[in-house]
Amino acid sequence: MDANLRQEIDKIVGLYEEKKAALLPVLHLVQDKKGFISPESEQQIGDILGVPVVHVHEVVSFYHLFHQAPKGKCHFSVCQTTSCALLGGERIIGHIKKRLNIKAGETTPDGKFSLSVVECLGACEIAPMMQLNKEYKGPLTIEDIDRLIDQNK
Ligand code: FES
User: Which atom of ligand 1 is nearest to the CA of 123?
Assistant: First the structure.
C-alpha cells in the first residue's frame, strides 16, 4: 500500500472513536483508488483497523458495491428487482448482454465494459434503472443503452 493511500486511510480512521467503525469508508476509499478490493487489500485493511480479515471479506463479498476483481471503465449495474423487472429491466439486461457479448458478472476483453445484475438500488421511481459507475440512470430505454455503449467504445 502506498504512503499516500495509507495517509488517507489514517485520516478517515481518525474521525472515529473505534477504528473498526471506519471499515466502510476505508473500503470505499481503497476501491476508489484501486478499482477493486483485492485479498491483499482486505488483509491490510484488517491489520490497520484491528479487524479479522474474514470480517473484512464478509463485508466486501456482501455488498455488491464492492468489487473483488477489476471492473470495466463503464460498469453497468442493472437492477432486476420487481419495479425494474416489470418495466423492462430484463429487456435492458438482455440488450446489454447482446451488444457487449458478455454475461452478467463479466467484463469485455478490452476492459471497457462490465455488466452486473443487482437487486433494488432504492431508485424504483426511475425504473427500469441502473447504476453506471457511481451515477444512477433511468428510466432506461434500449436507445439509452446503445448511446452509452457507443459513447464509451
Ligand atoms: S426495483 Fe429497481 S431500483 Fe428498486
Answer: 3
